[in-house]
Amino acid sequence: MKQIVVLGAGFAGLIAAVGAARKLAELKIDKSDIAVTVVNRDRWHSIRVRNYETDISDTRVPLDDVLGPIGVDLKIGEVTGVDWARHEIALAGQPSLHYDRLVFALGSELVRPPIPGLAEHGFDIDTHDAALRLGAHLDALPARPASPGRFTALVVGGGLTGVEMATELATRLRDIAGGEARVILADRAARIGSNMGDPACDVIDEALAALGVESRPGVTIASIDNQDARLASGETIAAETIIWCGGMRAHPLAAALPGEHDRFGRVTVDRFMRLGGCADVFATGDAAMVLVDGEHPSVMSCQHARPMGRIAGHNVVCDLAGVPMMPLEIGYYVTCLDLGAWGAVYCQGWDRQVAVKGAAAKETKQTINQQRIYPPRTRDAAEILASAAPVTQAPPRR
User: Fold this and answer.
1) pLDDT tens digits for range 186-205
2) Average pLDDT, stretch 165-181?
3) Ordered domains of the chain (ranges, CATH)
4) What is the pTM of this model?
5) d(Cα 320, Cα 199) in Å, to the nearest integer?
6) Which residues pair with 32 in a beta bridge?
7) Beta strands 94-98 and 88-91: pairing type?
8) Residues of the chain with pLDDT > 70: what percent?
9) What pLDDT score was predicted for residue 70?
10) What are the percentages of helix, strand and coil residues in the chain, rounded to 5?
11) In this structure, are residues 387 and 18 in contact, taking their beta carbons and an 8 Å threshold?
Protein backbone atom coordinates (compact mmCIF):
# COMPACT_ATOMS: atom_id res chain seq x y z
CA MET A 1 0.00 0.00 0.00
CA LYS A 2 1.22 3.48 -0.91
CA GLN A 3 0.75 6.28 1.58
CA ILE A 4 -0.09 9.94 0.91
CA VAL A 5 0.37 12.06 4.02
CA VAL A 6 -0.99 15.59 4.35
CA LEU A 7 0.56 17.67 7.13
CA GLY A 8 -1.97 20.15 8.51
CA ALA A 9 -5.74 20.47 8.26
CA GLY A 10 -6.15 24.19 7.72
CA PHE A 11 -7.74 25.68 4.62
CA ALA A 12 -5.13 24.21 2.26
CA GLY A 13 -4.43 20.93 4.03
CA LEU A 14 -8.02 19.82 4.54
CA ILE A 15 -9.11 20.47 0.98
CA ALA A 16 -5.89 18.86 -0.31
CA ALA A 17 -6.78 15.67 1.55
CA VAL A 18 -10.32 15.76 0.19
CA GLY A 19 -8.96 16.52 -3.29
CA ALA A 20 -6.67 13.49 -3.08
CA ALA A 21 -9.57 11.26 -2.01
CA ARG A 22 -11.65 12.66 -4.86
CA LYS A 23 -9.00 11.86 -7.47
CA LEU A 24 -8.48 8.37 -6.06
CA ALA A 25 -12.23 7.75 -6.35
CA GLU A 26 -12.22 9.10 -9.91
CA LEU A 27 -9.36 6.75 -10.86
CA LYS A 28 -11.10 3.90 -8.99
CA ILE A 29 -8.03 3.32 -6.82
CA ASP A 30 -8.90 1.53 -3.60
CA LYS A 31 -7.67 2.60 -0.18
CA SER A 32 -5.83 -0.73 0.07
CA ASP A 33 -3.62 0.46 -2.80
CA ILE A 34 -3.21 4.15 -1.94
CA ALA A 35 -4.29 5.55 1.40
CA VAL A 36 -4.51 9.19 2.52
CA THR A 37 -3.67 10.26 6.07
CA VAL A 38 -3.97 13.75 7.55
CA VAL A 39 -1.72 14.70 10.46
CA ASN A 40 -3.03 17.56 12.56
CA ARG A 41 -2.34 18.88 16.06
CA ASP A 42 -6.00 18.51 17.09
CA ARG A 43 -9.33 17.17 15.84
CA TRP A 44 -10.59 20.44 14.43
CA HIS A 45 -10.58 22.40 11.21
CA SER A 46 -10.50 26.00 12.42
CA ILE A 47 -12.06 28.84 10.44
CA ARG A 48 -9.13 30.90 11.63
CA VAL A 49 -10.00 34.06 9.73
CA ARG A 50 -13.05 34.50 11.97
CA ASN A 51 -11.08 34.64 15.23
CA TYR A 52 -11.51 38.41 15.42
CA GLU A 53 -15.29 38.05 15.68
CA THR A 54 -17.14 38.40 18.98
CA ASP A 55 -18.87 35.02 18.67
CA ILE A 56 -16.52 32.22 17.56
CA SER A 57 -18.69 29.34 18.76
CA ASP A 58 -19.22 28.07 15.21
CA THR A 59 -15.69 28.50 13.89
CA ARG A 60 -14.46 24.91 14.31
CA VAL A 61 -15.51 21.90 12.25
CA PRO A 62 -14.80 18.35 13.51
CA LEU A 63 -12.33 16.80 11.09
CA ASP A 64 -14.03 13.42 11.47
CA ASP A 65 -17.17 14.91 9.91
CA VAL A 66 -15.24 15.71 6.73
CA LEU A 67 -12.59 13.00 6.52
CA GLY A 68 -14.47 10.02 7.96
CA PRO A 69 -17.16 9.73 5.26
CA ILE A 70 -14.55 9.78 2.45
CA GLY A 71 -12.15 7.24 3.96
CA VAL A 72 -9.28 9.58 4.85
CA ASP A 73 -7.45 8.67 8.05
CA LEU A 74 -6.72 11.24 10.76
CA LYS A 75 -3.68 11.13 13.02
CA ILE A 76 -3.45 13.60 15.90
CA GLY A 77 0.09 14.72 16.62
CA GLU A 78 2.60 17.53 16.58
CA VAL A 79 4.98 17.34 13.62
CA THR A 80 8.55 17.97 14.77
CA GLY A 81 10.49 17.23 11.59
CA VAL A 82 10.64 15.50 8.21
CA ASP A 83 13.40 13.22 6.94
CA TRP A 84 13.26 13.77 3.19
CA ALA A 85 15.73 11.00 2.38
CA ARG A 86 13.95 8.33 4.43
CA HIS A 87 10.42 9.60 3.71
CA GLU A 88 9.63 9.78 7.42
CA ILE A 89 7.72 12.30 9.52
CA ALA A 90 8.77 12.79 13.13
CA LEU A 91 5.94 13.24 15.62
CA ALA A 92 6.28 14.40 19.23
CA GLY A 93 6.03 11.39 21.56
CA GLN A 94 4.95 9.03 18.78
CA PRO A 95 6.57 6.65 16.28
CA SER A 96 7.59 8.21 12.98
CA LEU A 97 5.22 8.03 10.03
CA HIS A 98 6.22 6.87 6.54
CA TYR A 99 5.03 8.53 3.34
CA ASP A 100 5.33 7.85 -0.36
CA ARG A 101 4.04 11.31 -1.26
CA LEU A 102 3.85 14.26 1.11
CA VAL A 103 1.73 17.41 1.05
CA PHE A 104 3.22 20.03 3.37
CA ALA A 105 0.37 22.29 4.52
CA LEU A 106 1.32 23.37 8.04
CA GLY A 107 0.31 26.92 7.28
CA SER A 108 1.55 30.04 9.04
CA GLU A 109 1.83 31.56 12.46
CA LEU A 110 1.89 35.00 14.01
CA VAL A 111 5.23 36.79 14.12
CA ARG A 112 6.03 37.46 17.78
CA PRO A 113 9.06 39.76 18.13
CA PRO A 114 11.04 39.81 21.40
CA ILE A 115 9.34 42.93 22.73
CA PRO A 116 9.66 43.03 26.53
CA GLY A 117 6.38 41.96 28.11
CA LEU A 118 4.67 40.85 24.90
CA ALA A 119 4.72 37.13 25.69
CA GLU A 120 3.52 37.65 29.26
CA HIS A 121 0.92 40.38 28.81
CA GLY A 122 -0.07 40.51 25.14
CA PHE A 123 -3.05 38.83 23.49
CA ASP A 124 -3.55 37.64 19.92
CA ILE A 125 -6.11 35.84 17.75
CA ASP A 126 -3.75 33.52 15.90
CA THR A 127 -5.53 30.39 17.12
CA HIS A 128 -8.97 29.47 18.43
CA ASP A 129 -7.56 29.02 21.93
CA ALA A 130 -5.86 32.42 21.77
CA ALA A 131 -9.13 34.05 20.73
CA LEU A 132 -10.92 32.33 23.62
CA ARG A 133 -8.26 33.63 26.01
CA LEU A 134 -8.79 37.16 24.73
CA GLY A 135 -12.55 36.78 25.09
CA ALA A 136 -12.26 35.61 28.68
CA HIS A 137 -10.01 38.58 29.48
CA LEU A 138 -12.42 41.06 27.92
CA ASP A 139 -15.42 39.59 29.73
CA ALA A 140 -13.57 39.88 33.06
CA LEU A 141 -12.69 43.57 32.65
CA PRO A 142 -15.76 44.94 34.52
CA ALA A 143 -14.71 43.03 37.65
CA ARG A 144 -11.19 44.47 37.64
CA PRO A 145 -10.25 47.52 39.72
CA ALA A 146 -10.89 50.86 38.05
CA SER A 147 -7.85 52.21 36.21
CA PRO A 148 -7.12 54.62 33.34
CA GLY A 149 -6.66 51.74 30.89
CA ARG A 150 -9.25 49.22 32.10
CA PHE A 151 -11.54 49.76 29.10
CA THR A 152 -8.82 50.75 26.65
CA ALA A 153 -7.63 48.28 24.01
CA LEU A 154 -4.52 48.81 21.92
CA VAL A 155 -4.43 46.76 18.70
CA VAL A 156 -0.93 46.62 17.25
CA GLY A 157 -0.66 45.97 13.53
CA GLY A 158 -2.57 47.92 10.88
CA GLY A 159 -2.86 45.12 8.34
CA LEU A 160 -6.07 43.30 7.51
CA THR A 161 -6.21 41.31 10.76
CA GLY A 162 -5.53 44.35 12.90
CA VAL A 163 -8.16 46.46 11.13
CA GLU A 164 -10.78 43.72 11.48
CA MET A 165 -9.91 43.21 15.14
CA ALA A 166 -10.06 46.92 15.99
CA THR A 167 -13.32 47.62 14.16
CA GLU A 168 -15.03 44.61 15.76
CA LEU A 169 -13.68 45.60 19.15
CA ALA A 170 -15.11 49.11 18.87
CA THR A 171 -18.60 47.75 19.51
CA ARG A 172 -17.60 44.75 21.61
CA LEU A 173 -15.59 46.68 24.20
CA ARG A 174 -18.23 49.37 24.64
CA ASP A 175 -20.85 46.67 25.24
CA ILE A 176 -18.64 45.09 27.88
CA ALA A 177 -17.88 48.43 29.52
CA GLY A 178 -21.53 49.43 29.49
CA GLY A 179 -20.51 52.83 28.22
CA GLU A 180 -17.32 54.60 27.23
CA ALA A 181 -14.41 52.55 25.93
CA ARG A 182 -11.33 53.37 23.89
CA VAL A 183 -9.86 51.39 20.99
CA ILE A 184 -6.52 52.41 19.46
CA LEU A 185 -5.09 50.90 16.27
CA ALA A 186 -1.33 51.39 15.92
CA ASP A 187 1.18 50.52 13.23
CA ARG A 188 4.75 51.39 12.25
CA ALA A 189 3.64 52.32 8.73
CA ALA A 190 2.72 55.87 7.83
CA ARG A 191 -0.89 54.88 7.23
CA ILE A 192 -3.25 52.27 8.67
CA GLY A 193 -4.00 49.59 6.08
CA SER A 194 -1.24 50.86 3.81
CA ASN A 195 -0.93 47.54 1.95
CA MET A 196 -4.49 48.00 0.71
CA GLY A 197 -3.67 51.13 -1.32
CA ASP A 198 -5.02 54.65 -1.02
CA PRO A 199 -8.62 54.15 -2.23
CA ALA A 200 -9.24 51.36 0.31
CA CYS A 201 -7.32 53.25 2.99
CA ASP A 202 -9.73 56.15 2.55
CA VAL A 203 -12.62 53.77 3.26
CA ILE A 204 -10.81 52.30 6.27
CA ASP A 205 -10.21 55.80 7.65
CA GLU A 206 -13.89 56.61 7.18
CA ALA A 207 -14.94 53.47 9.07
CA LEU A 208 -12.44 53.98 11.90
CA ALA A 209 -13.62 57.55 12.40
CA ALA A 210 -17.29 56.54 12.41
CA LEU A 211 -16.61 53.78 14.96
CA GLY A 212 -14.49 56.00 17.18
CA VAL A 213 -11.31 53.95 16.71
CA GLU A 214 -8.18 56.04 17.15
CA SER A 215 -5.49 55.62 14.49
CA ARG A 216 -1.85 55.78 15.52
CA PRO A 217 0.32 55.25 12.43
CA GLY A 218 4.07 55.70 12.51
CA VAL A 219 4.62 54.34 16.02
CA THR A 220 6.74 51.48 17.37
CA ILE A 221 6.02 49.51 20.54
CA ALA A 222 9.03 49.35 22.87
CA SER A 223 7.55 47.33 25.77
CA ILE A 224 4.28 46.39 27.41
CA ASP A 225 3.04 45.28 30.80
CA ASN A 226 -0.36 44.43 32.24
CA GLN A 227 -1.52 48.05 32.33
CA ASP A 228 0.16 49.97 29.53
CA ALA A 229 2.36 50.06 26.47
CA ARG A 230 5.48 52.17 26.07
CA LEU A 231 6.30 53.51 22.63
CA ALA A 232 9.79 53.98 21.23
CA SER A 233 9.17 57.73 21.49
CA GLY A 234 8.83 57.40 25.26
CA GLU A 235 5.07 57.94 25.28
CA THR A 236 3.00 55.60 27.45
CA ILE A 237 -0.50 54.42 26.51
CA ALA A 238 -2.60 53.13 29.40
CA ALA A 239 -4.28 49.95 28.15
CA GLU A 240 -5.10 46.73 29.97
CA THR A 241 -5.83 44.96 26.68
CA ILE A 242 -3.03 44.83 24.10
CA ILE A 243 -3.66 42.66 21.06
CA TRP A 244 -0.73 41.81 18.78
CA CYS A 245 -1.58 41.52 15.07
CA GLY A 246 1.91 42.20 13.75
CA GLY A 247 2.31 40.00 10.69
CA MET A 248 2.57 36.36 9.66
CA ARG A 249 5.29 33.90 8.72
CA ALA A 250 5.21 30.38 7.34
CA HIS A 251 5.33 27.54 9.86
CA PRO A 252 8.90 27.14 11.21
CA LEU A 253 9.29 23.68 9.65
CA ALA A 254 8.85 25.25 6.21
CA ALA A 255 12.42 26.52 6.57
CA ALA A 256 13.63 22.92 6.23
CA LEU A 257 11.89 22.44 2.88
CA PRO A 258 14.45 22.32 0.05
CA GLY A 259 14.30 25.22 -2.36
CA GLU A 260 14.04 29.00 -2.42
CA HIS A 261 12.18 30.80 0.34
CA ASP A 262 10.64 34.28 0.31
CA ARG A 263 10.67 36.92 3.05
CA PHE A 264 7.69 35.25 4.73
CA GLY A 265 9.53 31.93 4.99
CA ARG A 266 7.42 30.31 2.28
CA VAL A 267 8.99 27.77 -0.04
CA THR A 268 8.64 28.36 -3.77
CA VAL A 269 6.63 25.77 -5.68
CA ASP A 270 5.71 25.43 -9.33
CA ARG A 271 2.14 25.72 -10.56
CA PHE A 272 1.63 22.00 -9.93
CA MET A 273 2.46 22.67 -6.22
CA ARG A 274 5.71 20.67 -6.48
CA LEU A 275 8.99 21.50 -4.77
CA GLY A 276 11.79 21.91 -7.25
CA GLY A 277 14.44 20.50 -4.92
CA CYS A 278 12.65 17.49 -3.47
CA ALA A 279 10.87 14.77 -5.38
CA ASP A 280 7.71 13.32 -3.86
CA VAL A 281 6.89 16.48 -1.86
CA PHE A 282 4.21 19.05 -2.58
CA ALA A 283 3.64 22.22 -0.57
CA THR A 284 0.56 24.39 -0.43
CA GLY A 285 -1.25 27.14 1.44
CA ASP A 286 0.53 29.68 3.62
CA ALA A 287 3.73 27.59 3.67
CA ALA A 288 4.16 27.87 -0.11
CA MET A 289 4.57 30.64 -2.68
CA VAL A 290 3.25 30.11 -6.18
CA LEU A 291 2.55 32.45 -9.09
CA VAL A 292 -1.21 32.02 -9.17
CA ASP A 293 -1.60 33.37 -12.70
CA GLY A 294 1.95 33.07 -13.91
CA GLU A 295 2.72 36.58 -12.69
CA HIS A 296 1.38 37.42 -9.22
CA PRO A 297 2.57 35.57 -6.10
CA SER A 298 -0.02 33.94 -3.87
CA VAL A 299 -1.09 35.77 -0.74
CA MET A 300 -1.33 34.21 2.71
CA SER A 301 -5.11 33.92 2.84
CA CYS A 302 -7.82 31.31 2.50
CA GLN A 303 -8.67 32.86 -0.89
CA HIS A 304 -5.49 31.29 -2.29
CA ALA A 305 -4.93 28.46 0.21
CA ARG A 306 -8.11 26.66 -0.81
CA PRO A 307 -7.49 26.53 -4.59
CA MET A 308 -3.82 25.77 -3.97
CA GLY A 309 -4.93 22.88 -1.76
CA ARG A 310 -7.36 21.55 -4.35
CA ILE A 311 -4.60 21.41 -6.97
CA ALA A 312 -2.06 19.91 -4.55
CA GLY A 313 -4.46 17.12 -3.54
CA HIS A 314 -5.38 16.38 -7.14
CA ASN A 315 -1.77 16.38 -8.34
CA VAL A 316 -0.25 14.32 -5.55
CA VAL A 317 -2.48 11.43 -6.64
CA CYS A 318 -1.76 12.06 -10.32
CA ASP A 319 1.97 11.98 -9.59
CA LEU A 320 1.75 8.74 -7.66
CA ALA A 321 -0.57 7.13 -10.22
CA GLY A 322 1.45 8.31 -13.23
CA VAL A 323 -1.27 10.38 -14.89
CA PRO A 324 -1.03 14.01 -16.12
CA MET A 325 -1.16 16.74 -13.49
CA MET A 326 -3.03 20.05 -13.60
CA PRO A 327 -1.51 23.53 -13.16
CA LEU A 328 -2.98 26.14 -10.84
CA GLU A 329 -4.73 29.01 -12.60
CA ILE A 330 -6.44 31.80 -10.66
CA GLY A 331 -7.43 34.62 -12.96
CA TYR A 332 -8.82 37.11 -10.47
CA TYR A 333 -8.05 38.64 -7.09
CA VAL A 334 -10.43 40.28 -4.64
CA THR A 335 -10.15 41.54 -1.07
CA CYS A 336 -13.11 41.83 1.29
CA LEU A 337 -12.25 43.52 4.58
CA ASP A 338 -14.64 43.51 7.53
CA LEU A 339 -15.08 46.91 9.17
CA GLY A 340 -17.24 45.99 12.13
CA ALA A 341 -20.61 47.66 12.65
CA TRP A 342 -19.76 50.18 9.91
CA GLY A 343 -19.80 47.51 7.20
CA ALA A 344 -16.97 46.30 4.98
CA VAL A 345 -15.01 47.17 1.87
CA TYR A 346 -14.82 44.94 -1.21
CA CYS A 347 -11.91 45.53 -3.59
CA GLN A 348 -11.19 44.04 -7.02
CA GLY A 349 -7.91 43.43 -8.78
CA TRP A 350 -4.31 43.39 -7.64
CA ASP A 351 -4.43 47.17 -7.36
CA ARG A 352 -7.39 46.77 -4.93
CA GLN A 353 -9.83 49.21 -6.47
CA VAL A 354 -12.87 49.77 -4.27
CA ALA A 355 -15.97 48.17 -5.81
CA VAL A 356 -18.43 48.20 -2.90
CA LYS A 357 -18.36 49.54 0.64
CA GLY A 358 -20.58 49.72 3.70
CA ALA A 359 -23.55 47.45 4.39
CA ALA A 360 -23.63 45.88 0.91
CA ALA A 361 -19.99 44.80 1.21
CA LYS A 362 -20.72 43.47 4.70
CA GLU A 363 -23.28 41.05 3.24
CA THR A 364 -20.61 39.66 0.92
CA LYS A 365 -18.12 39.39 3.79
CA GLN A 366 -20.60 37.44 5.90
CA THR A 367 -21.30 35.09 3.00
CA ILE A 368 -17.56 34.45 2.67
CA ASN A 369 -16.92 34.01 6.39
CA GLN A 370 -20.00 31.98 7.26
CA GLN A 371 -20.58 29.87 4.15
CA ARG A 372 -18.11 30.00 1.28
CA ILE A 373 -14.95 28.97 3.15
CA TYR A 374 -16.53 26.14 5.16
CA PRO A 375 -16.21 22.50 4.13
CA PRO A 376 -19.49 20.59 3.75
CA ARG A 377 -20.82 19.59 7.16
CA THR A 378 -23.44 17.11 5.96
CA ARG A 379 -21.22 13.99 6.23
CA ASP A 380 -22.36 13.24 2.66
CA ALA A 381 -19.37 11.69 0.87
CA ALA A 382 -20.43 12.80 -2.62
CA GLU A 383 -20.89 16.41 -1.52
CA ILE A 384 -17.57 16.45 0.33
CA LEU A 385 -15.64 15.03 -2.63
CA ALA A 386 -17.34 17.42 -5.05
CA SER A 387 -16.22 20.39 -2.95
CA ALA A 388 -12.59 19.63 -3.82
CA ALA A 389 -12.93 19.50 -7.60
CA PRO A 390 -9.77 21.09 -9.07
CA VAL A 391 -11.50 24.18 -10.40
CA THR A 392 -11.32 27.81 -9.33
CA GLN A 393 -14.45 29.18 -7.69
CA ALA A 394 -15.94 32.28 -9.26
CA PRO A 395 -15.35 35.51 -7.34
CA PRO A 396 -17.71 36.10 -4.41
CA ARG A 397 -21.00 37.60 -5.56
CA ARG A 398 -21.41 41.25 -4.59
Assistant:
1) 999 999 999 899 999 999 99
2) 97
3) 2-109+248-331 (3.50.50.60), 112-244 (3.50.50.60)
4) 0.96
5) 47
6) none
7) antiparallel
8) 100
9) 98
10) 35, 25, 40
11) yes
